[in-house]
Amino acid sequence: MLQSLNKAVDKIKEKAAEVRAQAVDAAAAARATSGQTDLPADSRSASIHLCGFDIQGVSIAGQETCLILPRCKLALDIGRCPQPAVYQQTVLITHGHLDHIGGVTFHAASRMLLGLQPARYVVPARYEDKLRKLLEVTSDMDGGLPLEYDITPLTEGQEIELETGHIVRCFPTVHPVPSQGYILYSLRKKLKAELVGRSQEEIKELRQAGQEVTDTYQIPEVAFTGDTSGELFEQDGNADMYRAKLLIVECTFVDESVSWEQARERGHIHITDLVMHAHKFHNEAILLVHFSPRYKRQQILAALEENMPPALRAKCVPFLNGFP
Ligand SMILES: [Zn+2]
Ligand SMILES: [Zn+2]
Predict the structure, then answer these.
(1) Which ligand is nearest to the CA of 62?
(2) How deeply is 188 buried, as exposed, middle or buried, from its count of CB atoms within 10 A (0-12, 13-18, 19+)?
(3) Confidence (pLDDT) at 257
C-alpha cells in the first residue's frame, strides 16, 4: 500500500517537474522571439534590436503607444510618456486618440524641466491648431514659464529632415479620426550612372572642378502605420511602406474573440489582414504592436504560430512589453 502511494507521489513530482520545464521553455521562447532577456516577462522597459535599430517603449491598444528609436532621437506616438521618451526630441504623432497623444504635455514639460531643446511634434495637418491649444492650456495651468515646442504639420508629398539626417514622409491611413503613418529614410550617395567606369583620378578631377559626381537616394528604413484598418493594404501605392527594412504595424486583434469584420468596423488590423496580404510585405522584419490588452503574451504567441504561414511568421516579431 505504502509502496504504491510512494510510486504515485513520485509520478506527481515527475509530472510537476515536466510542467515546470515546459513553462521555462515557453518563457525562453517568448523572450527569444521578442528579443527580451533577463527581464520579467511583462517588463515595460525591454529593448528590441531589429534592422539596425534599438526599439524601446510600450504599445498596448487603448492604453498607450510610444515607441522609441534612440538612434534617430525619435519617438513614434506619445500615448503616455515613458521616461526614455523625454530624451527624444522629435515625436511623430499618428492621430488624436489619447492612447497615442495623451503624454504630449508631459513630454514638453519634462524636456523644459531638464533643460533640453524644445521638442518637435510632427502631426497630421488637421491637428496643428488643436495640439497648440492643448499645450497652451497646459502651460497656463502649470503657471510656470511658457512651454516651448515646435509643431510641424506634415501632409503627404512633403518631407522633413531630422537632426540625425534622416528624412520623414507620411502616408494616409484608415481610422475613424484623421490619421497618418510615417516612413523614415536614410540618405545614400551613389556615383552618377554616366560616371560609372571612369577612373578614380578622373572622378576626383571632376569633383575638384566643382561638378556633382553623385546622386542621392532615399532608402526607406522604418515604416510605422499607427492605428489603421486593414483597408490600408487594399489601397494602391504606399510602395515604400512595403519595402522599408522594418515595418512597424498595428495588429490589435489576433483571434476570433474579435472577428475580422469587427476589427474592420473599429478601424483596426486583424491578424487575418496580415495573412491575406502577406505577399506584399517585402520588409526584412515586421514588428507587431498595439495588441489588445484582452490577450496574454502566450495567447499572442500561440495565435501567431497558429494563423501565420511560416514565411510571414519568420519575419514577424511581436512587441510584448507590458503584456503579462
Ligand atoms: Zn490606439
Ligand atoms: Zn486610434
Answers:
(1) 1
(2) exposed
(3) 96
Which residue bears the cell 550617395?
189
Q: Residue 202: inside a domain, yes or no?
A: yes
Q: Using the mean position of ligand 1's atoms as its centre, give its distance from the Cα of residue 203 in Å.
A: 52
Supply 33's cell numbers. Answer: 522571439
Name the closest ligand to CA 100. 1
Q: What is the mean pLDDT of residues 210-225?
A: 95
Ligand 1 centroid, distance to 192 Cα (angstroms): 44
1 within some domain: no
DSSP β-ladder status, 285-289 and 246-250: parallel
241-261 burial code (b ≥16 CB/10 A, e <16):
bbbbbbbbbbbbbbbeebebe
CA of 61 to the centre of ligand 2 (A): 8
CA of 169 to the centre of ligand 1 (A): 21
What does the alpha-carbon distance between residue 5 and residue 9 come to, in Å, rounded to a whole number? 6
The model's pLDDT over 134-153, given as tens digits with 9 standing for 90+, comes to 999 999 998 878 999 999 99
Number of structural domains the chain divides into = 1
Each residue of 44-91: pLDDT tens digit?
Answer: 989 999 999 999 999 999 999 999 999 999 999 999 999 999 999 999
Ligand 2 centroid to Cα of residue 174, in Å, is 10
pLDDT tens for 222-262 read 999 999 999 999 999 999 999 999 999 999 999 999 999 99
Domain of residue 114 covers 47-318
Domain at 143, CATH number: 3.60.15.10
Please list the residues that pair with 157 across neighbouring strands.
Answer: none
Domain assignment of residue 138, yes or no? yes
- Residue 100's φ and ψ, nearest 5 degrees, are -120, -15
Closest CA to 95 of 111, 78, 107, 81: 78
- Note whether residue 28 is domain-resident: no
Report CA(61)–ligand 1 centroid distance (Å). Answer: 5
